[in-house]
Amino acid sequence: MSDVQFAAIETPSAGALTIEYRWLNRDRENAPLLVFLHEGLGSVAMWKDWPQQVCDAGGYRGLVFSRPGYGRSTPRPAHGKWPVDFMHRQAREVVPAFLDAVGVAHDEAHPVWLVGHSDGGSIALLFAAAFPDRLTGAVVLAPHLFVEDVSVESIAKTKTVYETTDLRAKLARYHDDVDSAFWGWNDIWLNPEFRHWNIVGAVASIGVPLLAAQGENDEYGTMAQMDAIADHVPHAQIVKLPDCGHSPHRDAPEALNAAIVAFIGPAGQSDQSENSLPAQSVA
């Protein structure tokens, strides 16, 4: 991608890092900004066209970036392992440092929304809990609040696929260091210590507007994740998508885009509360 740029950041845990990023519709200076946080094997390129589609649907600006270890960002150190609290560190160290580096500041005239998928959704939830003054709200797609058996079983199967098929070659199209991306994600999720990871307590403190969406056929998590959000963040809007797996933006983009635009509101319409959806299943 010729319009990809790079930002230098510094974090307490990882030191100096280079972050790959891409702006969408940057000329819409006063439009809401959607900052996209990818899943555990994602990157700027792996989002493909969906961020552009949803930004065009609502008239938004967009900012897509690859977290450390993914895409063309600084890879995971050789033989390094993500710690159990890696998503907390991403939310509290990497995301704020990156937003500062590229000049993103939230205020009434420049609303900022996080849009996170899977691990990126969990990171968005943790950021919303820790830095409520830095964003207008968040949209999370198939986030994890705790580890389920179905998650571990699916990730274990993916390990076998990576080792025995052409999956590695396919993922290498999207990551400069494909083994950094895959094994960083796979090793931590299959680490027995990670089975105790749980962010329900942190999520309960979220006060900003929150839309959570998940496919009813999600192979990496059950609706217990959505139910936990509904129980602990009563103001959250829940969308359960039928005939949809772990990636709503790929499996049900039209329904998802409509839900997001209805929740955030089209550009130029500032009162989000008038456009929020009730908890529902989208047919």
Automatic annotation (TrEMBL):
One GO cellular component term noted in the UniProt record for this chain: membrane
Keyword Hydrolase attributed: yes
SUPFAM superfamilies named among the record's database cross-references: alpha/beta-Hydrolases
Pfam families reported in the protein's UniProt record: Abhydrolase_6
Keyword Hydrolase on entry: yes
Keywords assigned by UniProt, alphabetized: Hydrolase
GO terms assigned for molecular function: hydrolase activity
Domain AB hydrolase-1: 34-259
Gene3D superfamilies the UniProt entry points to: alpha/beta hydrolase
PANTHER family: HYDROLASE, PUTATIVE (AFU_ORTHOLOGUE AFUA_2G14860)-RELATED, MONOACYLGLYCEROL LIPASE
Official protein name in the record: Alpha/beta hydrolase
Record organism: Pandoraea terrae
